[in-house]
Amino acid sequence: MALLRRDLLGYTPLYAEKLDPSLSSIGDSKESFYFGSLEGVLAQRYPNQWPSEGILPSWRQTMETYYKNVLSVGRKLLGLIALALDLDEDFFEKVGALNDPTAVVRLLRYPGEVISSDVETYGASAHSDYGMVTLLLTDGVPGLQVCRDKSKQPHIWEDVPGIKGAFIVNIGDMMERWTNGLFRSTLHRVMPVGKERYSVVFFLDPNPDCNVKCLESCCSETCPPRFPPILAGDYIKERFRLTYATS
């Protein structure tokens, strides 16, 4: 609690978030620790909170090394996505998305207890991630579920098996907006399974000042843009406002 979140960075306690604001239940059954940019304007504007070296020796160094490595992986993945869209490999750099990106690591613990209640409880209620792509590492404990077609009701949920040594990759809302729904953001949730669960999430989101608008190659007269242009920072702020306002 000494490192309670400030500008979303630091510790977030159990039930402090509700990723699906439409639910009447208490907040999501998880606790987390966020840290973000290590250098650049965003790092100065939103400094990370770190436990002291005396409490957790080498922990900060380990986390910063992981951050740099997974950011490199994320950049390469976005280059592949650009090529898949018949764009230049460095497209997302050219439009400013990767110029001091909003890249955040989140360490998550789910207690996992299945609570007997009239209201269903979630480790993480149903949501899509807000940015471009998410790289997720899990400890192999089940609970993560995805909905392949979020436009159909009722939603059909499928368990996601963990693959040792591999990332689970989610497409985020910003990518769906850029591609006019060609690449759809992943609706997912975490259900309690009666066992403690840990995961490490890396969110690679655009620079807040990046203008996200439909790619010319992804729209036409018969398929007009489904989403208006928006600054990445404005969209993400609104999503976070709803997440915490209803918790």
UniProtKB/TrEMBL annotation:
- Which superkingdom heads the taxonomic lineage of this protein's source? Eukaryota
Q: Which UniProt keywords apply?
A: Iron, Metal-binding, Oxidoreductase
The segment(s) forming the Fe2OG dioxygenase domain are 101-206
Q: Name one GO molecular function term.
A: dioxygenase activity
Q: Which InterPro entries match?
A: IPNS-like_FE2OG_OXY, IPNS-like_sf, Oxoglu/Fe-dep_dioxygenase_dom
For the keyword GTP-binding, the answer is no
Give the family from UniProt. Answer: Belongs to the iron/ascorbate-dependent oxidoreductase family.
Q: Would you tell me the protein name for this molecule? A: 2-oxoglutarate (2OG) and Fe(II)-dependent oxygenase superfamily protein
Q: Which organism is it from?
A: Arabidopsis thaliana (Mouse-ear cress)
